[in-house]
From TrEMBL:
<dbReference type="InterPro" id="IPR014729">
    <property type="entry name" value="Rossmann-like_a/b/a_fold"/>
</dbReference>
<comment type="similarity">
    <text>Belongs to the ETF beta-subunit/FixA family.</text>
</comment>
<dbReference type="InterPro" id="IPR014730">
    <property type="entry name" value="ETF_a/b_N"/>
</dbReference>
<protein>
    <recommendedName>
        <fullName>Electron transfer flavoprotein subunit beta</fullName>
    </recommendedName>
</protein>
<dbReference type="GO" id="GO:0009055">
    <property type="term" value="F:electron transfer activity"/>
</dbReference>
<keyword id="KW-0249">Electron transport</keyword>
<feature type="domain" description="Electron transfer flavoprotein alpha/beta-subunit N-terminal">
    <location>
        <begin position="23"/>
        <end position="210"/>
    </location>
</feature>
<dbReference type="Pfam" id="PF01012">
    <property type="entry name" value="ETF"/>
</dbReference>
<dbReference type="InterPro" id="IPR033948">
    <property type="entry name" value="ETF_beta_N"/>
</dbReference>
<keyword id="KW-0813">Transport</keyword>
<dbReference type="InterPro" id="IPR012255">
    <property type="entry name" value="ETF_b"/>
</dbReference>
Length: 246
């Protein structure tokens, strides 16, 4: 079984976020990057399936060279090889085109990724790839099991309950907790990751459908105002005039 896991290189949530002076681009200076946490659920589940059923797990990243430390981390966790499409991931459509191009060349049985990236939260790529490849897309799933070599069963949340989906391979799915328990690389994994194949390829000539006009930070939260419980009128004035919720 051949499984492709797509991972994004995203800022750590503890990093201080800044933009360039013209607010046109994200400023990477001083930012720590990590594997997108949602992608780690997909990666770990793929490795679990490989360990149980056999096969290979390939990691794919659409990104620049600074993503390679986290690609190596994915290899240390247990992926067999990796592909990096050497490009700035401009928008969801662009990324979907790159994944589709790789998938068409390698006939994967299953394509997994996180339900969204924690930087842009678009949650679009998996459905685009499914449409481009003409295969089922199940999103987001919190459980994934194989029935046999040709069939999988997934569970996903729906309004007021859950939905159980049986699907023939190949398919694409996005992952969310608790699909698996993300793993921390051990020393042996870190050592072997250094020699595992990491292929770098150039992007296909895909169109970009969206452009970013500018970025801005949310307004800083104002301080807490304490109101004497005997002065309910002051509270009402603040809710009406400042919070504007009345």
């Amino acid at each position: 079984m051949k499984i492709l896991v797509c991972i994004s290189n995203v800022p750590d949530t503890t990093s201080k976020i800044n933009f360039t002076a013209d607010n046109k681009e994200f400023d990477k200076n001083g930012v720590q990057f990590v594997i997108n946490p949602w992608d780690e659920y997909a990666l770990t589940r793929a490795i679990e399936l490989k360990e149980a059923k056999g096969g290979t797990v390939t990691v794919l990243n659409v990104g620049e060279a600074d993503a390679e430390p986290n690609i190596r981390k994915a290899l240390a966790i247990g992926a067999d090889d990796a592909i990096r499409v050497n490009a700035n991931p401009k928008d969801a459509f662009f990324v979907a085109q790159q994944i589709t191009a790789v998938a068409k060349e390698n006939n994967y049985d299953m394509i997994l990724m996180g339900k969204e990236s924690i930087d842009y939260n678009g949650s679009q790529v998996h459905n685009m790839v499914g449409e481009m490849l003409g295969i089922p897309s199940i999103v987001p799933a919190f459980k994934l099991d194989l029935v046999d070599d040709n069939t999988a069963v997934l569970e996903r949340e729906i309004e007021g309950g859950k939905e159980v989906v049986e699907v023939k391979l190949p398919f694409i799915a996005s992952a969310q907790q608790p699909m698996s328990e993300p793993r921390i690389p051990n020393m042996r994994g870190i050592m072997t990751a250094r020699t595992k194949p990491l292929a770098v390829r150039e992007p296909v000539g895909a169109d970009v459908k969206a452009d970013y006009v500018n970025f801005s930070k949310p307004e800083k939260k104002s301080g807490v105002k304490m109101i004497d419980p005997e002065n309910a009128g002051d509270l009402i004035k603040l809710l009406r005039n400042e919070a504007k919720v009345l």
